[in-house]
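Q: My labmate handed me this sequence with no annotations at all. I'd like to see what the chain might look like in three dimensions before we decide whether it's worth expressing. Could you predict it?
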Amino acid sequence: MSMILFACVIRVRDGLPLSASTDFYHTQDFLECKRRLKTLALQLAQYPGRGSTEGQDFRIHFSSSGDVACMTICSHQCPAAMAFCFLETLWWEFTASYDTTCIGLASRPYAFLEFDSVIQKVKWHFNYVSSTQIESSLEKIQEELEFQPPVVLTLQDADVANGMMNGHTQMHLEPEIIFTRHLFFFNCEAPSFRMEPVTALGILSLILNIMCAALNLIRGIHLAEHSLQVAHEEIGNILAFLIPFVACIFQCYLYLFYSPARTLKVVLMLLFICLGNVYLHGLRNLWQILFHTGVAFLSSYQILTRQRQEKQSGCGV
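A: Here is what I predict for the chain of 317 residues:
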């Protein structure tokens, strides 16, 4: 009988499922365990390293490193060392197949669903190959578990059911760390303010905006040093460099993070940059002015078209 029943790969920062095995178990207890796994996946950033949680008939084990975590549902007969050895093998296989850029830019659930075949292969290997063939790996994992035991999480059935209905879950971390319902509610509501994934054009606009900000800052500081020694008439030119510098930095912030009244702020930042460059007509040629204003318009467009993600995608296959 198989001891490792289900496995999935999760992006730690937001709980996005990247790939998962196909399961053929549809008992009520197993489905309940998958719902618990889904809830836990959204909170993996709080539990770096290894952890486990007990179900009525199954156990959930997870292991995370960097922005990738692997999770599995096992039977009670599966030793913890074997489960974590399986997860470590799965983690190495996944990170060797996909680089951090691809993982970070993934925008939809199960973007690497083709990795399912690798999960099934590794799962079959651990389920049906004799333990003597992986004895050295198991001994290494066992020593690590004894030196640094995994975090043990307890999800009470009643609390999980209530949390699923109300959009939040109360979790208890052993030993001696208790997350109250209000704190956990805050953490689970955070994804409603998460922005859509960054696009390639958005990254380009950020790079160009940082470049423009750096040019404005360098020219402004250089002009300020010169003006303090010569005259005070160029204070307007200094401000015309420094104000667009601040506006460029704020545009980067608006693109990366949600902010109320975003449209008004975008218009104001665009206006500051355009007016500053028009004022600097004598110190910049036409092509330089067009470059700075063009970058400002591109960044403004990217900010306004990047919307909030209203609802976190599900983890079920």
